[in-house]
Design a protein that fits this description.
Blueprint lengths: L2 H18 L2 E4 L4 E4 L2 H8 L8 H20 L5 E6 L3 E11 L8 E10 L5 E8 L9
Antiparallel strand pairs: 1-2, 3-4, 4-5, 5-6
């Protein structure tokens, strides 16, 4: 099947999932995380350019798994803070999940973001390969 058609179908599916799940409770923060267009846009575009179509397809495919990770997250794996014009914070949670037809679990990383005193939002989801190390805080 054409990758452009697959990508279009996946975007429609993820949009439907997000419409039903605008708020997701996260046990780590003991509050709701907002799922909005900013995070969905980031799945398709980096700060500089459009991501490759295969990467977009993978990231969009991981959204349902990412949302379930948010619901179960109790232990933080990474935290970063940047101070440019506004303070921006990033939290990362990593879980081992079944994805695709793999016999073993895949490491899936979910990133949440807050700018200034705003709400915490879903920012990204990605599959980590075995060579990627998790930084220690």
């Amino acid at each position: 099947m054409n990758i452009h058609l697959l990508l279009k179908q996946k975007k429609m599916l993820v949009s439907a999932i997000v419409r039903k799940n605008r708020l997701i409770f996260c046990p780590y923060f003991n509050k709701n995380i907002i799922i909005n267009s900013d995070g969905l846009h980031h799945l398709r575009y980096s700060s500089r350019r459009e991501r490759p179509k295969k990467e977009q397809l993978l990231r969009l495919s991981l959204v349902p798994i990412g949302l379930s990770i948010i619901k179960k997250s109790g232990t933080l794996q990474e935290y970063r803070i940047f101070n440019s014009q506004k303070i921006t914070e990033y939290w990362a949670f990593i879980a081992i999940c079944q994805y695709g037809n793999q016999e073993y679990g895949q490491r899936i990383k979910i990133i949440l973001k807050r700018t200034g005193n705003g709400n915490i939002i879903f920012w990204s989801v990605m599959k980590l390969n075995n060579k990627q190390k998790t930084p220690r805080n």
